[in-house]
Amino acid sequence: MTYTLAIGDRGYSSWSLRGWLLFDAFGIPVQTRTARLYTDELPRLLADFPPARTVPVMRTPDGCVVPESLAIAEELASRHPEAGLWPADPKARATARVLACEMHAGFVALRNHCPMNLRVSYQTCEPPEAVLADLARLETVWAWARAQSGSTGPWLCGAYSAADAFYSPVASRIATYNLPVSTEAAAYVAAHLAHPSFRRWRAMGMVDGADQDFYRRDYPQRPWPGPQPLAAKAVASGPSVNPTCPYSGKPVTDFMELGGKTWGFCNPFCRDKTAADPEAWPKFVEIYQS
What is the spatial distance between Cα 180 and Cα 115, in angstroms, rounded to a whole number? Predict the structure, then answer.
């Protein structure tokens, strides 16, 4: 048995992103079950994970259901101390937990005005004063965390931790809505956009179902400010360089063109997530560079 994680739309569900990063960024295997937000799919999925009321929710290998991202973080840290979800240094660990708790409960104005949408980036969103106040608070706690932990790298408390996973959706909001932040905060955002696990999640989010009207805004758009993916596209047929899918090992049925060659996958989602950002997928990069 392994862990099972119930999530919503990858392009929009910020809490699901947090939950999934707690696995992928720390090398903990997990199977996912997905449901589309604002549809009957979500309550039907959650019926299999009582007493959860929303996503993400985890089922452990021994059958324990754990709703809420903070609880998931703590349970995974207890079961996998070697994974390093929290910093080893006591002061840095305490700081990281403070950060995660504030993110879990705060920044309501920012959440409401700038819902997570990984599929677009806007030139502006005309942030009101309450959103600017939330941004100022983010700058304050991020600087405090670095001072407390002595972190000099890209992350808040030394190595990438659960605290950074919790702030990943905020980083995406700053990127999506081009929110005004300091040079230091912008560098922290850029680190998130380039993080391998975030890139994989966003690649899946780009092709994970149709656009959700709830998240649509009429602001003028700009290019995504994160790493630009290689130019790949789906094509109707092969033959492909590779006879089996780089992820499942199954025979290929769906095809993608990149670098003047055709590559094969075992289903449309494997193909489409790869086409969205080929360099985000180590198993594909391995055959692409060989």
Answer: 16
Q: Are 209 and 215 in contact (CB under 8 A)?
A: no
pLDDT of residue 22: 98
> Is residue 237 over pLDDT 90?
yes
The reply to whether 90-200 shares the fold of 3-81 is no
Position 225: which residue type? P
Q: Where are the domains of the chain?
A: 3-81, 90-200, 233-289
Strand ranges of the sheet holding 254-258, from the earlier edge strand across to the other edge: 233-235, 254-258, 261-265
CATH no., domain 90-200? 1.20.1050.10
Compute the C-alpha angle 116/179/199, nearest 5°: 45
| pLDDT at site 105 | 87
Cβ pair 48, 77 in contact under 8 A: no
Q: What is the pTM of this model?
A: 0.96
Dist CA 25 CA 273 (whole Å): 18
How much is the pLDDT for 174?
A: 98
CATH 3.40.30.10 applies to domain 3-81? yes
